[in-house]
Amino acid sequence: MRHAKSDWNGYYISDFERGLNKRGEIDAPLMGEVLKQKGLNPSIILSSAANRAKLTAIGVAKALNYDKNKIRYVDKIYEATTDELFLIINSLEESFDEVLIIGHNPSMTELINRLGDVTLDNLPTASVVGFIFKNKSFKDIKPKSGKFLFFEYPKKYKS
Known about the structure:
Shape: globular
Structural class: alpha/beta
């Protein structure tokens, strides 16, 4: 998942500290509801430690009835390359089943394009792409090992 729409009004705030704008505050829980309707029940939510990603994770978690205190904030997701994101995935505990990662572009779009059998030009804010893997272990997840399940985005649910 890419973080929800961020607030650009605070020019004096660092990129890392930017929060969500009004649209982002609405879209994060909306996408959590969409994921809940799809039956997603993450074992773990991993989020960039950037403020806009944290706020997105909290909004999604609330809609999924996921304990926000169990969200794992990973500093490396903030400016991660796709290879670094694969390392994060490959290091996940085997006890996890469903994983939600919340990060930033361009690395999230690149990760999606490398994970499976789908190609996106751009992952819009608050969008989520789902994959399923035959692999028995997270350390076996590699490029093109995922099967595309869904692509959900906020505008799809707004009239």
